[in-house]
Amino acid sequence: MRNFIAQWFRKPQSNPSPGTIVDSPTGRPQAQPQTARQRRMEASLASLRLLPTGVLRQLESSGHRRVQDLLRLNLSQWATEQRLTASQQSQLRTVRRAIRMAFALRAMHPREAYLLIAIHRRSPEDVASDSPRHLFRDLERFALSSRGRALTRRIEIPSLERVSAWIAAAQDHQFSRLATSHTSSASDTAGVSPAPSGH
């Protein structure tokens, strides 16, 4: 796995206690992210290597440098202010969707999610319903297309083993959501008093 992708999965360094303040590379104290999710939210957009240079510079010049900035951005308003083309807006939305999928499936990098979106697997549910070999074959076929060749110059096709890990993570995610929904429904039902019989 390439170093910049491996960085996404790197475990946070353990700190003496939550919220510990340490010296930053600039010499100024700064709080370290405590969880993998927090660290990934703090990752720079540049480190994802997904955005065109021009769009990335526009984001950075507007103060949107981190993953969390893009997730919280009012994209329609910002795109209008920056006079982005329809193609640039579509690409930004796809990158944001890829980031959200990678957050949902912790075994996945946003670049890998971006590749899946290109073959119409746009959500964890789409991934969960697939089989490893079928999804892997679709990726291989996509890599032979003109668009696929262009994209796989920047994003390599994953191994069958990684595809299997994504599907397992997507199924776990789906099961977790169903379990949470069932628990919530049960709690709501338990809190409702039976209606009087009228007798």
From TrEMBL:
<feature type="compositionally biased region" description="Low complexity">
    <location>
        <begin position="179"/>
        <end position="190"/>
    </location>
</feature>
<feature type="region of interest" description="Disordered">
    <location>
        <begin position="10"/>
        <end position="36"/>
    </location>
</feature>
<dbReference type="InterPro" id="IPR025567">
    <property type="entry name" value="DUF4332"/>
</dbReference>
<dbReference type="Pfam" id="PF14229">
    <property type="entry name" value="DUF4332"/>
</dbReference>
<protein>
    <recommendedName>
        <fullName>DUF4332 domain-containing protein</fullName>
    </recommendedName>
</protein>
<feature type="region of interest" description="Disordered">
    <location>
        <begin position="179"/>
        <end position="199"/>
    </location>
</feature>
<feature type="domain" description="DUF4332">
    <location>
        <begin position="58"/>
        <end position="172"/>
    </location>
</feature>
